[in-house]
């Protein structure tokens, strides 16, 4: 991509309304623009990162055996009356009346609708287990939308739902989600710690939230510092194996880690004092097992092996897809801008032409640009006539992992400069070597 043909409306000034670093950088890097309170347009570079995050989630969900689908954003109030949540949900639900005076709503979550799909189509235990998920826009009329995409009113969520015959089967689905979420967040360069949480309006007994530690997080968290040493890494996992999934759950939840909602001072005090941590975190996901909370009122039953009609055991599992952009930036930045982890970076590499218009520099940049594309990479070539200082500032702000700097002086010696955004280290080398190092 040539910057001269792209749409990257970088802001020089720090927007006054942005209180936290991720919000500031997302605005300054031209990733989002507020349309109204808590509602954003996703400008090309923000949209690119959003898509990368979605792709990782799709890959990891499907690896775990979960099936993608899509449900509408606007739903009828009727189903929500059947479950009893239409009144219970309160002011966070955006209620809409259509021209025929039918009561509709913008989905804040989708347990009711998926259960309706299930009950209309599944009648035998033989069709279980079943887990389906979607990545779809949600709306919650948050009382205080703030921090940009962190607490939006319209936001993108991955929500998955499992249907199982027994509690044990549903707990296996719960564990599968826990494992797949660990993998998902790690691929985004994040450490998200599963913490015992409160179930809120979703309901249920078993629930963990995934928290990214950050000073700007809205949740207070209490944990045993040993938990931050745990990594899922690239270990193999058989998602059909109950033992393997259960073992991961035990490993990642056996140390004290709770949010303020479930924090228990007496239990926390049993952790050796030097390992006790009180900090703040950003909730980037939550998994729930809630049994028959929706299947009973909505009549989602199947015939079991003896022919008895039994309500299915369910759970739901959410990831804050758009919030993740904010969480990743909170976890990975410096005073010059964003530092994208490789897994979600909008472009793999920036190419800075120090002297656009110089025939040799132009030709060398074009060659590097083409070589990176030929390798399947996605470079951003700054071919504008801005001065070098401004080009560097933009590259630092948008935080691509690598920058190749090309100028007439280096080219005389046959070299360009390759700079790592994370370490700030630069090295001179021939253009081909720089391309090879990035690939
Ligand atoms: P919070 O405690 O932050 O209000 P929640 O517990 O109400 O979130 P869930 O119902 O668990 O949210 O939804 C699943 C995920 O969706 C959350 O873990 C979070 O990452 C994301 N999410 C929830 N509300 C918002 C929001 N207003 N803006 C952006 N992401 C959100
Ligand atoms: Mg909420
Ligand atoms: Mg919450
Ligand atoms: Mg939650």
TrEMBL record:
It catalyses: tRNA(Pro) + L-proline + ATP = L-prolyl-tRNA(Pro) + AMP + diphosphate. This is Proline--tRNA ligase. CDD domains: ProRS_anticodon_short (cd00861), ProRS_core_prok (cd00779). Its EC number is 6.1.1.15. The gene is proS. Residues 33-341 form the Aminoacyl-transfer RNA synthetases class-II family profile domain. InterPro entries: aa-tRNA-synt_IIb (IPR002314), aa-tRNA-synth_II (IPR006195), aa-tRNA-synth_II/BPL/LPL (IPR045864), Anticodon-bd (IPR004154), Anticodon-bd_dom_sf (IPR036621), Pro-tRNA-ligase_IIa (IPR002316), Pro-tRNA-synth_IIa_bac-type (IPR004500), Pro-tRNA_synthetase (IPR050062). Belongs to the class-II aminoacyl-tRNA synthetase family. ProS type 2 subfamily. NCBIfam families: PRK12325.1, proS_fam_II. Pfam families: HGTP_anticodon, tRNA-synt_2b. GO terms for biological process: prolyl-tRNA aminoacylation. Catalyzes the attachment of proline to tRNA(Pro) in a two-step reaction: proline is first activated by ATP to form Pro-AMP and then transferred to the acceptor end of tRNA(Pro). The keyword Methyltransferase does not apply. It is an enzyme of class 6 (ligase). GO terms for cellular component: cytosol. Homodimer. It is found in: Cytoplasm. It comes from Salipiger thiooxidans. GO terms for molecular function: ATP binding; proline-tRNA ligase activity.
């Amino acid at each position: 991509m040539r910057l001269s043909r792209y749409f990257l409306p970088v802001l020089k000034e720090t927007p006054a309304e942005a209180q936290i670093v991720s919000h500031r950088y997302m605005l300054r890097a031209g990733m989002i623009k507020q349309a109204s309170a808590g509602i954003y347009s996703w400008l090309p570079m923000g949209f690119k990162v959003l898509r990368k995050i979605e792709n990782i989630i799709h890959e990891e969900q499907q690896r775990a055996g979960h099936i993608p689908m899509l449900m509408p954003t606007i739903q009828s109030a009727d189903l929500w009356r059947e479950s009893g949540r239409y009144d219970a949900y309160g002011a966070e639900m955006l209620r809409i009346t259509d021209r025929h005076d039918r009561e509709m709503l913008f989905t804040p979550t989708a347990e009711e609708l998926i259960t309706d799909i299930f009950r209309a189509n599944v009648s035998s235990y033989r069709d279980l287990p079943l887990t389906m998920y979607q990545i779809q826009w949600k709306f919650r009329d948050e009382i205080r939308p703030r921090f940009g995409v962190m607490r939006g009113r319209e936001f993108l969520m991955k929500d998955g739902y499992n249907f199982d015959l027994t509690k044990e089967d549903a707990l296996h689905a719960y564990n599968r989600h826990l494992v797949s979420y660990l993998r998902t967040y790690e691929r985004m360069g994040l450490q998200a710690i599963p913490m015992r949480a409160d179930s809120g309006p979703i309901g249920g007994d078993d629930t963990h939230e995934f928290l990214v530690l950050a000073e700007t997080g809205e949740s207070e968290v209490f944990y045993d510092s040993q938990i931050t040493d745990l990594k899922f890494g690239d270990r193999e996992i058989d998602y059909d194996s109950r033992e393997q999934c259960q073992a991961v759950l035990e490993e990642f939840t056996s140390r004290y880690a709770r949010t303020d909602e479930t924090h228990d001072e007496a239990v926390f005090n049993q952790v050796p004092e030097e390992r006790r941590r009180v900090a703040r975190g950003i909730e980037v996901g939550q998994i729930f097992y809630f049994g028959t909370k929706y299947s009973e009122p909505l009549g989602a039953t199947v015939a079991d092996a003896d022919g008895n009609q039994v309500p299915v055991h369910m759970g739901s599992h959410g990831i804050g897809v758009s919030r993740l952009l904010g969480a990743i930036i909170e976890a990975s930045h410096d005073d010059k801008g964003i530092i994208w982890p490789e897994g979600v970076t909008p472009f793999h590499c920036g190419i800075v032409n120090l002297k656009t218009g110089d025939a040799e520099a132009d030709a060398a940049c074009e060659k590097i640009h083409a070589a990176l594309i030929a390798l399947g990479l996605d470079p951003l070539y700054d071919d504008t006539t801005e001065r070098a200082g401004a080009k560097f500032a933009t590259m630092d702000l948008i935080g691509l992992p690598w920058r190749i700097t090309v100028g007439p002086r280096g080219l005389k010696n046959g070299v360009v400069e390759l700079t790592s955004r994370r370490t700030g280290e630069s090295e001179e080398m021939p253009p081909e070597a720089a391309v090879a190092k990035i690939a």
